[in-house]
UniProtKB/TrEMBL annotation, chain A:
Belongs to the CPA3 antiporters (TC 2.A.63) subunit D family. The lineage of its organism: Bacteria, Pseudomonadati, Pseudomonadota, Gammaproteobacteria, Chromatiales. This is Monovalent cation/H+ antiporter subunit D family protein. Residues 131-424 form the NADH:quinone oxidoreductase/Mrp antiporter transmembrane domain. It comes from Wenzhouxiangella limi. Keywords: Cell membrane, Membrane, Transmembrane, Transmembrane helix.
C-alpha cells in the first residue's frame, strides 16, 4: 500500500469511524476509538504534507474512475498544509476533551464523538477533494454535524445559536452551490483542474462572474468575514467548550482555504483580482473586521464571546494577507491560518479550564483567580502574549510576515493598522490578566482548586507549541510558503 | 546544533529547574549547575556554532574564538565562586536571577550577531535588577528602578543602532563596527553606558552598593566586563575611548577617596579599573588589547573577592559605612586576610594578579609612545592602593575599635573567598597560563626589575603618605556629590520650586484628563458594551441582509465592467 492509496483514508477513517463510534456504549470507549481514528488521520496527513512540500501533487481517483468524470482527490502543498492542521488539531484537542465533555454532556458519549468525527471527516474532505461539487457535499456534512455539536451546549441559548448558525450556514452553502451550478452550466465540468483549464476561454461570460461572486460571498459567510460574522460569536460562546476549542482552530480556516482555492486555482488570480474588485473589497472588509472585532472584544464581559470576537479580528488578518495577492501576502495568510489555530486553541483551552472549575466564563467571576489557579491563568497569559504578537510567539511571526507583505506591496500604511489592532488585543487580554491577578477575590467566593492535569497538560502543550513555532519557524514558514506557491501555480516549490 | 551545547542553555535550564527542587537538593544543584556550565564552556571548540535563520536574518549564537573564550571562561569561574558565596541564601528568586544573569552575560559574549547580542543584552538587565531589588529596602527598590531606566535607555540606543546598522550595511554580523551612519554612535553609547564611562556611569555607583550582599558579587563581575568585551569587538582603536578610559581611571579613584560606604568605594573602583580596559581598547594595539583582556580576567576575580569581603563584613555586622566600622581584624581575621589579597591584587603589588595584567596596559601605553596616558595610568594605581588597600582596610579592620564583635562569616563565604584569593595569587605568581589564552599571544614579562621597582616605589610612598595624613583621608559620613549634584545643594531651592509648579500643573492636567477620560469611557461603554451596536445579537434577517448587500455590490462591480 503506497501513501497515495492511504491518502483518502485520512478522510475515510473518521467518516467510517463515526458510524462505528455512534453505537459504542459508555464514555471512555467512544473517546478512545475517536482518538485512535484522529491519530491515524493526523499521521497520514503528516506523511502527505512531507510528500507534497517538495512540490509534488498527489492525485487519487475515487473508485478508479479517471478524473474529469469521477471524483478526484488532488493534493498539493496547500491542501496538505490545511489538512494536516485539521487532523493534528483534532488529535490535540481530543486529548483535552474527556474531562471537559464529561461534565457538559450527560449520558453516553457515543453520538457526540460520532458527530465530532463527522465534522473532522467533512473538513478533511473539503480540503482534500479536487471536485467542486464534492466540496459542497463535505461542506454540508461538516456543517450539519457542527450545528448539532453546538446545540449540545449547556446554556439554552446554544439551541438558538445553533439554529441561527444553521440558517446562515445554509445560506452560505447554497450560495456556494449556486456558484458551482453556474460554473457547471458554462463549462460542463465539476473537476477543479478541468475548470481551471476551461474558464480562461470564457472570461467574458457574466455567469462566470456571478459564480465567483456567489462563491466568495458564500465562503465569506462560513469564514465569518465581517459583516457576515454575526453567527459566530453566539455559536462559539454557547457551544460546549471542547467544540469551541476545536471549531475555533479549524472550521473558519477550511472555509478560507476553499475561498483561496477557487480564487487562485480555479479562477486564477488574474481573473479573480482583476475582473471583480476582490482585492479592494477583501482589504476593506479585512480591515473593518480587524477593527470591529477587536473593538467589540475590548468590551465583552463573557470570555468566550470576547475570544470569538477576537477570532473575527484574526480572520481579518488572514484575509488581509490574501487581499495583497502576492506570494508573501499569501504566505502570511497561510502562516496565520496555522498560527491562529494554535493561539485560539490555547486560549479557549485555558478558558475551558476556568469554566471547568468555576462554571462561569464571566470576567467578574475571574477576579482574584490567578492565585488559586496559577497554571491555568499563566497559560492564558502566555497564549495572550501570542495573540498580541510579542516576539518569540507565533503571533509575532504572523504579524511579521504581514508587515513584510504590506511593505513589499508598497502599502506601508497597513502596518499602522496592524500595530493599532495589536494594541487593542493587548487591552482585551490585559483586562483578563488584571481581573485574575490584580483584583481581590470577592468576599464569599468559593475557594477554587487548580484545573485537573488532564486539562492542564494539553493546554500547556499547545501553549508551548505557540512558543516553539515562534522560535523555530522552519516548518511553518516553509510549509506556508510552499502552500502559497502551490496556489499561485509555481508548482509549490519549497523555498 | 548537535555538536555543541550552548553553556548559557545549561544555566538557563538549571535556573528553570531550581524552584521545582526540594529545598535540600537546591544547595547541591546551585553548585552543580555552574560547574556543568563551566564544563560546557571547556568543551567549546573555536569556530562558529549554533547558526540558524530567524525571520530572514542569519543568527549566530555561538561565536567561539580566543577573545570570546577569555571572557566566557572567567564568567564561568566567577559564577561557580559567586554561587558558593551565596549558598547560605534561602531566597530562590536571587539564585534564579543570578543564574539567568550569568547565562545572558555568556550569551552576549558568545553572540556572533547584533540581534542575538541585543536579546541577551536586555536579558542581562532584566535579570540583574532582581539582585538589587531582593535586598528588600526602599533605597534598593529606588536604586533598582533607576538602574532599570538607565539600562532601558541604553537598550533603546542599542536597538536603534542595530536597526540603522542593518539598514545601511544590510548585515547584522557583529564585528568591528565601521560605518559612517549614526549607528556607530548609537551602539557606542549603549556600550559605554554598560561600561560605566562618565558621565554615563552614575547607575553603577548608585546601584551596586544597594544590591544584595551576594548579588553585588555577580554584578561587579558581569555587566561592565561584557561591555569591555563588546567594545573590544566593535570599537578597537577608537581614540575617544582611550581618553575616556584615562578619565575613568582617575574619576573612579577621586570619588572613591570621597566615599564612605565600603561597597560604594569598591563600585567607584570598578569604574577606575574598567577605565584601564577602556583605555587599552582605545589604544587598540595588539599588546593593549591583550592587556585589556588579561586585566578583565584578573579584575573580575579580585573585584569579586573584594565585594565578597565587603559583603561578609556587611552580612556579619549589618553596617556598611567606614565611620561605623573599625577594629574588625580581631574578630574576623580570615575575612581580613582574604580581603587584603584582593586589595593588594587591585593595587598591583607584585606576586598578585593585578600586577601581571595592569602593567601590560601601562607598558602598551609606553610602547605606543603615549607619555601622558602612561603617567596618568601609572599614578592612578597609587590612588587605588590608597583607597582600597589602605583607607578601606585600615578603617574597616583597624583604626579605632567600634565595639563590633562579629563572628567569621559562614564557611561557604570563606571558601568562596579562599578560592578567589588563591586564583589571584596563582595568577600573580604564574601568569603563563593566563597569557597563553589571550587573543594575541604576547611576549611580555612582568617580572623585570624595572617593573617591580617602579611599582613598589609608587605603592610604598603612597603608603607612607597615607599614614602621615591619616587624619585627612578617613571616611566622612557625608554624601559625595556626583553627576547627581544638579538636584542638590545650590540648585535645591530652584529645583523644589520647579517641582512644586510642575506637580501642581500635572495634578490639574491629570484631573482634566482623567475626568474627560472617565466620561468618555462611560459613553463608550454605554454605546459599545455588551449590548452595543456591534456586539448585539442581531436577528437572522439582518445577517441575510448583509449577505445580499455584499453579493449585490460584488455583482454590480463585476457586471459594470463588462
Amino acid at each position: 500500500m503506497t501513501l497515495l492509496d492511504l491518502m483518502p483514508f485520512m478522510m475515510l477513517a473518521p467518516l467510517i469511524g463515526s458510524g462505528f463510534v455512534a453505537v459504542l456504549p459508555g464514555r471512555a470507549t467512544p473517546w478512545a476509538v475517536t482518538m485512535l481514528v484522529c491519530l491515524s488521520s493526523a499521521i497520514i496527513a503528516a506523511a502527505v504534507l512531507a510528500e507534497t512540500l517538495g512540490g509534488a501533487t498527489m492525485s487519487y481517483p475515487f473508485g478508479n474512475w479517471p478524473p474529469p468524470i469521477g471524483i478526484e482527490y488532488r493534493v498539493d502543498a496547500a491542501n496538505a498544509f490545511v489538512a494536516f492542521l485539521v487532523a493534528a488539531m483534532a488529535a490535540v484537542t481530543l486529548l483535552w476533551a474527556p474531562k471537559s465533555v464529561a461534565v457538559e454532556i450527560q449520558g453516553r458519549h457515543g453520538t457526540f464523538y460520532a458527530l465530532f468525527l463527522l465534522v473532522v471527516a467533512g473538513l478533511l474532505g473539503i480540503t482534500l477533494t479536487g471536485d467542486a461539487f464534492n466540496v459542497f457535499v463535505f461542506l454540508e456534512i461538516s456543517s450539519l454535524a457542527s450545528y448539532a455539536l453546538i446545540a449540545y451546549g449547556q446554556d439554552r441559548r446554544a439551541l438558538l445559536a445553533a439554529f441561527r448558525y444553521l440558517i446562515m450556514g445554509t445560506v452560505g452553502a447554497t450560495f456556494f452551490l449556486i456558484g458551482i451550478a453556474f460554473l457547471y452550466m458554462v463549462t460542463g465540468t465539476l473537476n477543479m483542474a478541468d475548470l481551471a483549464e476551461r474558464l480562461p476561454a470564457m472570461s467574458d461570460n457574466n455567469a462566470v462572474r456571478a459564480a465567483l461572486a456567489f462563491i466568495v460571498v458564500g465562503m465569506g459567510l462560513k469564514l465569518a468575514l465581517l459583516p457576515l460574522h454575526l453567527w459566530l460569536p453566539n455559536a462559539y460562546a454557547y457551544a460546549p467548550n471542547f467544540v469551541t476549542v476545536f471549531l475555533a482552530g479549524t472550521a473558519t480556516k477550511v472555509a478560507l482555504y476553499v475561498m483561496l482555492r477557487f480564487a487562485f486555482t480555479v479562477f486564477g488570480p488574474d481573473y479573480s483580482f482583476v475582473v471583480l474588485p476582490l482585492s479592494t473589497v477583501l482589504m476593506v472588509l479585512a480591515l473593518a473586521g480587524m477593527f470591529a472585532g477587536s473593538w467589540v472584544a475590548m468590551f465583552q464581559i463573557h470570555l468566550k464571546r470576547m475570544l470569538a470576537y477576537s477570532s473575527v479580528a484574526q480572520v481579518g488578518y488572514m484575509v488581509l494577507g490574501v487581499s495583497l495577492a502576492t506570494l508573501t501576502g499569501l504566505t502570511a495568510a497561510f502562516l496565520h491560518l496555522f498560527n491562529h489555530a494554535l493561539i485560539k486553541t490555547a486560549l479557549f483551552m485555558a478558558v475551558g479550564c476556568v469554566i471547568y472549575r468555576t462554571g462561569s466564563a464571566r470576567l467578574d467571576d475571574l477576579r482574584g483567580l490567578g492565585r488559586q489557579m496559577p497554571w491555568t491563568l499563566t497559560a492564558f497569559a502566555l497564549a495572550g502574549l501570542s495573540i498580541i504578537g510579542v516576539p518569540t510567539t507565533v503571533g509575532f511571526i504572523s504579524k511579521w510576515y504581514l508587515v513584510l507583505a504590506s511593505i513589499e506591496a508598497g502599502a506601508w500604511w497597513l502596518v499602522v493598522f496592524l500595530v493599532i489592532t495589536s494594541l487593542m488585543a493587548l487591552y482585551y487580554i490585559w483586562r483578563v490578566i488584571e481581573a485574575a491577578w490584580f483584583s481581590p477575590r470577592p468576599n464569599g467566593a468559593a475557594e477554587m482548586r487548580e484545573a485537573p492535569l488532564a486539562l492542564l497538560i494539553p493546554t500547556w502543550f499547545v501553549v508551548s507549541l505557540n512558543f516553539y513555532f515562534g522560535l523555530d519557524t522552519r516548518l511553518t514558514v516553509g510549509a506556508a510558503r510552499a502552500a502559497a506557491g502551490a496556489l499561485l501555480g509555481d508548482g509549490g516549490s519549497a523555498p | 546544533m548537535t555538536d555543541w551545547l550552548h553553556p548559557a542553555l545549561v544555566l538557563l535550564l538549571g535556573a528553570a529547574a531550581l524552584p521545582l527542587l526540594p529545598a535540600a537538593a537546591r544547595r547541591v544543584w546551585l553548585v552543580l549547575v555552574p560547574l556543568l556550565g563551566l564544563a560546557a564552556l571547556f568543551t567549546l571548540s573555536p569556530g562558529t556554532h549554533g547558526q540558524f535563520e530567524f525571520l530572514g536574518m542569519p543568527l549566530v549564537t555561538g561565536r567561539v574564538d580566543d577573545l570570546s573564550l577569555v571572557f566566557a571562561y572567567v564568567f564561568g569561574i566567577i559564577l561557580v565562586i559567586g554561587m558558593i558565596f551565596a549558598l547560605h541564601v534561602k531566597d530562590t528568586v536571587q539564585h534564579v536571577a543570578a543564574l539567568t544573569y550569568a547565562a545572558s552575560a555568556l550569551g552576549a559574549v558568545l553572540a556572533g550577531d547584533l540581534v542575538t547580542l541585543y536579546v541577551f543584552w536586555e536579558l542581562m538587565v532584566i535579570t540583574s535588577v532582581w539582585l538589587i531589588w531582593r535586598r528588600g529596602t526602599d533605597v534598593s527598590y529606588a536604586a533598582g528602578m533607576r538602574y532599570l531606566i538607565i539600562h532601558a535607555i541604553g537598550g533603546m540606543s542599542l536597538l536603534a543602532g542595530v536597526i540603522v546598522f542593518y539598514q545601511t550595511t544590510g548585515s547584522i554580523a557583529f564585528d568591528r563596527i565601521e560605518t559612517a551612519s549614526p549607528a556607530f554612535y548609537l551602539i557606542l553609547v549603549a556600550f559605554m553606558i554598560n561600561a560605566a564611562v562618565p558621565p554615563l556611569h552614575a547607575w553603577l555607583s548608585d546601584a551596586y552598593p544597594e544590591a544584595t550582599v551576594t548579588g553585588a558579587v555577580f554584578m561587579s563581575a558581569l555587566t561592565t566586563k561584557t561591555a569591555v568585551y563588546v567594545l573590544m569587538r566593535g570599537y578597537p582603536g577608537v581614540e575617544l575611548l582611550m581618553w575616556m578610559g584615562v578619565i575613568m581611571t582617575w574619576y573612579g579613584v577621586i570619588y572613591a577617596v570621597l566615599a564612605n560606604d565600603i561597597r560604594r568605594i569598591l563600585a567607584y573602583h570598578i569604574i577606575s579599573q574598567v577605565g584601564y580596559m577602556v583605555c587599552a581598547v582605545g589604544m587598540g594595539t595588539s599588546l593593549a588589547l591583550s592587556g585589556a583582556a588579561a586585566h578583565a580576567f584578573t579584575h573580575i576575580l579580585y573585584k569579586a573577592l573584594l565585594f565578597m569581603g565587603a559583603g561578609a563584613v556587611i552580612y556579619m555586622t549589618g553596617k556598611s559605612k567606614l565611620t561605623e566600622l573599625g577594629g574588625l581584624y580581631r574578630s574576623m581575621p580570615w575575612t581580613f586576610l582574604l580581603f587584603m589579597v584582593g586589595a593588594v591584587s587591585i593595587s598591583g603589588f607584585p606576586l598578585f594578579s593585578g600586577f601581571v595584567s595592569k602593567t601590560i596596559i601601562i607598558e602598551a601605553a609606553a610602547d605606543d609612545g603615549r607619555g601622558i596616558i602612561y603617567l596618568m595610568l601609572l599614578t592612578a594605581g597609587a590612588g587605588t592602593f590608597l583607597s582600597i588597600g589602605l583607607k578601606l582596610a585600615w578603617f574597616t579592620f583597624f583604626h579605632r575599635d567600634a565595639g563590633l564583635r562579629p563572628a567569621e562569616p559562614p564557611p561557604n563565604m570563606l571558601l568562596a573567598m579562599g578560592l578567589a584569593a588563591s586564583l589571584c595569587f596563582l595568577i600573580g605568581v604564574v601568569p603563563g597560563p593566563l597569557y597563553a589564552i589571550l587573543p594575541a599571544p604576547i611576549d611580555y614579562n612582568a617580572w623585570t626589575v624595572g617593573h617591580v621597582l617602579k611599582e613598589m616605589q609608587l605603592l610604598l610612598f603612597t603608603g607612607l603618605a597615607f599614614f602621615l595624613m591619616l587624619g585627612l583621608v578617613g571616611g566622612k559620613n557625608k554624601i559625595a556629590l556626583d553627576v547627581d549634584w544638579i538636584y542638590r545643594g545650590g540648585g535645591k531651592a530652584l529645583t523644589i520650586a520647579l517641582r512644586d509648579r510642575i506637580s501642581a500643573t500635572n495634578a490639574e492636567l491629570r484631573n482634566v484628563f482623567m475626568d474627560t477620560l472617565v466620561q468618555w469611557m462611560a459613553r463608550v461603554k454605554k454605546r459599545h458594551g455588551r449590548d452595543g451596536k456591534l456586539a448585539r445579537t442581531w436577528p437572522t434577517g439582518s445577517m441575510a441582509f448583509w449577505v445580499v448587500v455584499l453579493l449585490a455590490s460584488l455583482l454590480m462591480f463585476g457586471i459594470r465592467q463588462h
